[in-house]
Specification:
With 375 residues, the protein is α/β, with parallel strands linked by helices. The chain has one domain: NADP-dependent oxidoreductase domain (TIM Barrel), CATH 3.20.20.100. Helix content is 33%, strand content 11%. The strands form two sheets. It has an eight-stranded parallel sheet with strand order 3-4-5-6-7-8-9-10. The protein is globular.
Length: 375
Amino acid sequence: MSSSPDATPDPAGDVVDPATVPARVLTGGDRMPAVGMGTFGSDRYGTAQVAEAVRGGLEIGYRLVDCAAVYGNEAEIGQVFTDAFRDRVVERDELFVMSKLWNDSHGARGVASSVRRTLTDLGLDHLDGYFVHWPFPNHHPPAADPDARDPHARPYLHDEFMETWQAMELLVDSGLVRHLGTSNVTVPKLRLILADARVRPSLNEMELHPCFQQPELFDLCVAEGVQPIGYSPLGSPSRPERDRTPGDHVDTEHPAVVAAARAHDVHPALICLKWAAQRGQVPIPFAVRRSQYASNLRAVTTDPLTEQEMAALGEADAGDRLIKGQVFLWPGAASWEDLWDVDGTVATWDGFTPRTGTAPDPTPDAADSPPGTAR
């Protein structure tokens, strides 16, 4: 990635030279920054607030932006990109922009129309990364109630997913997308996708923070040349109420995180980011305050953690998934764990049983079965 010819004004003294931000090398040799800006407002922040944060982020040195159609703010972020290109804040080839196909757009037609809409909204002629947001077409409206359910929800059906993936592959063929990504998948799902994909995923977006490290999935990604992208890297303190359950860990209060924060004289959240970057994933923290997103960027460029601190943080893993996804359950699923294949097999209509890939008969018992744990 080149440097813009015009220097960015730095009245606050918080600009980070993008050249000092570590990079990850993807399959094929492309590079992406080792930290990015998340843009999910968590049902708490308006589109203007998120767009203004992206504007400020570009000014201070961010060169990776993680977007999604369902976040509802791509048009506003697109205007920020247009302004930044016009004002020579950043050049297009300096940016790594990612977006995601929402669950209601699976299938060949949905993929084609969704990517066109996203590119139009973002004001771009291509995406650097494009993900299937969730591996099944179950969806919900914005700010959904925890008890909301898609009446047409179904479990992961591999043949159906691969129809969507094949449409994604055509986007790479046409030059509209440079790298494909999976998101919210599990080890057994990713193995199936890797085995059958013509264009293999270069990226996998997954929940990653000290108290939820997903070592098996992380290691599979690394072994297969798939770059892990970590969402909720701070433990998602701003996540929607529907994703909060009693007993959730607070990463920034973990003793290993607190001890490292004291040793480095920084906020515990920055320890989570240092750990993420040094482990090898790409964290995409969300923040709307300039002081916070500036600190997030600087954290991965200075004052690294020691080997002892990294080891202590490695022991912080509690297997505590915070984004459980209950709203995506299908009739017959027992709990949110069915979404995540916790026994190592792909869950079916009836939970953890051998997958048939067919829907259950619409008997009264099936129709009256509880939809599962609320999100």
